[in-house]
Amino acid sequence: MDPVRNWAQDVLRCHLCETPVPPLYCDICKKHVCKACVGEHFSDESTEHKVMPFKSLGSATTCQKHSSKICELYCEQCNIPICLQCISCGEHEQHKKVNILENFETKKAVLKRDLQELEESIDLKYREIAINISDQKTDLNKNSRKLKIAIDKHGEDMHREIDIMIQKLKSDLDEIDSKQLVVLTKQENDIKRTISEITEIISDLKKQLNSNNVNIVSSYKSRNAEFRRLPPKLTVCLPSFTAHNIKREQLYQQFGSLTESSIKTEEHGYTMDSPKAESSPPDRPLIDVPRIITEINTEQRGIDSVSCLSDEQIWTHGDENIMKLYNLRGELVKSVRTKSGNAPCDIAVTRGGDLVYTDRDDRSVNIVKKTHIQTVIRVQGWRPSRVCSSFSGDLLIIMNSDDKQVKVARYSGSTEKQCIQFNHKGKPLFSSGIYIKYICENRNQDMCVSDSQASAIVVVSQTGKLRFTYTGPPSTTKGSFYPIGITTDSQGRILTTDYTNKCIHIIDQDGQFLRYIDNCHVQDPRGLCVDSRDNLFVAEYDTGKVKKIQYNH
């Protein structure tokens, strides 16, 4: 007997006689029953019974690959219902499989618990937050009106002082003019008087020349020597007005200023009672031998980034201007062309499930909402390269300046909230230039940057303080460390591709090396991401494949 089929039959057995693949199911007791044991099952009068054919159950699902078969199992790795024929084909041989109805009931319980928590706790808390935001908006509006009135009043006071200053300058000018006019007028009168005398003398001299009166001519006395002594020349130095350049910054300082406005983000400012320990991620220790679960052939050239939309779908991009969404069977679900026609530099998926991409050539960051592409960030002097979506909903973006500086910028919408560029000594945290760098955020809100030029993983805290730099394990027989893609999992572990050695490094959140994934034959590994079950997706640059790898329990 086929051992795979025998294993599957062991999952579904009559709860009384263990006959394989019983055709009936009691919807009250949630147990499988064969035809021979129906009577015995009904003999238990401690509860009611509702036995029906397994195939007639509302939860029964037709197999996607074998349409004539009913799915009796659920593959947890692939997250899909499967039938016994799927197992006999060997496709899910090494995967963890559970009874589909048990999985159905477990998920129903989760749905019920989630619904109760949403209705009784989460929804109320969000409504409380909404009211708080509305109150703050009202306060913001009131404060703004109050400040505008104060600014207007201060402006009127300043205008009044300027008017007084202008009037004083005009008065000073009038006084200067008055003093100068006195001097000029006096000389002007003296000159006019002299001119009158000269005119009179000229007239007398003309008469004497025509006269034969000896007495008159003989008594003439010349005054030309007196008139040759000209009066002093008065030259007025005209007053001038020197207008100083209006220095706007000094004017602002003189006028007054507003204190810087900011929104303080407290990640744990709102608190909520944890429903149960389930809110913490389950413990997922590393397995001894990582293994490839599936390979997705995207047929994309130069596949550079991969980002999980869900456990069943991944976004990818290569060196073309098209981003593509695939399911785990390698089927193209959706494709989006960039707004500018340029190839994207990087992609990420937001907390709300929207696709974000950076356009280095266009100096923009764009978000795809259904079929509409919206440019949310456009920068000058810098070019956005790699991007990730933080747990708070902010975007963390690696920026390269035109003069080869590098920084990490935190954006809320289109507003830059934080810039991380230097350590406490003023030295750059990241290598300069356009060398490959990827970024992700860890569960403790550390920002993790893979810096290929520095052969290091640079990890800074939420406040931008350097926590540690990882340059590889203490001792190794492998070649030089060349990190590219980077991601983190639910346990706070950091995973990065080592392009040179064609493997994955796993370190803990404090930079301690844990292990390699070097047995899965990854070729030219680039981008990384993990799904909700901490399955790892590795983008292979040259092959165009994305490998899904299980590395923990």
Characterization of this structure:
The longest helix has 110 residues, at 100-209. A hairpin with a 4-residue loop joins β1 and β2. The protein contains 7 helices and 32 strands. Residues 1-10 have low confidence and may be disordered. The chain is elongated and about 175 Å long. A 4-stranded antiparallel β-sheet has the order 9-32-31-30, with no helix packed on it. The chain has helices at residues 3-11, 38-42, 84-88, 100-209, 214-218, 224-228, 248-255, and strands spanning 24-26, 31-33, 51-53, 61-62, 70-71, 73-75, 80-82, 97-99, 286-297, 305-308, 313-317, 322-327, 332-337, 346-349, 355-359, 364-369, 372-378, 382-389, 395-401, 406-412, 415-420, 437-441, 447-451, 456-460, 466-470, 483-488, 494-498, 503-507, 513-517, 525-530, 536-540, 545-552. Helices cover 27% and strands 30% of the residues. It is an alpha+beta fold and 553 residues long.
